[in-house]
Amino acid sequence: MDLIKILAIKLIVIFFFKKDIYLLEFYLSKLFEKYDYEKTSLNNKKNTFFLNLIPLKVELNILKRELIKLNFINVIFSFYFYFKRIYLFFLSNFNNTNFPKSY
């Protein structure tokens, strides 16, 4: 295994849970099919409605860091962006999107 793949795997483990990767792959599945990208998560069907409600690992890390710093304005912003992500993920629909051709 080359160094880039090892570093990429370590970064994925640091910043994402497995359910985070599955959720992103689910919402970007049309893009994955168009450009023949390989999916890394399991292909079994999970309930994305409930997975979408659980915070991402990045969101939890930011919230923890801001609580330790006692920066309450950023804590409020973290909740705001959490709800905004949930709302945007429910609205996202790439079925009618025309992606550029891959050469």
Report on the architecture of this protein.
The chain is mainly alpha-helical. It has one domain. The protein is built from six helices and no strands. The chain is globular, with a radius of gyration of 16 Å.
What is the string of helix and strand elements? HHHHHH
Count of alpha/pi helices: 6
Structural class: mainly alpha
Total beta strands: 0
Fraction in helix: 55-70%
Task: Report a brief summary of the structure.
The chain has 103 residues and is an all-alpha fold. The protein has one domain.
Please specify the SSE layout and strand pairing.
Elements: H1 3-15, H2 18-27, H3 29-34, H4 48-53, H5 57-69, H6 72-91
Task: Supply the key terms.
103 residues; mainly alpha; globular
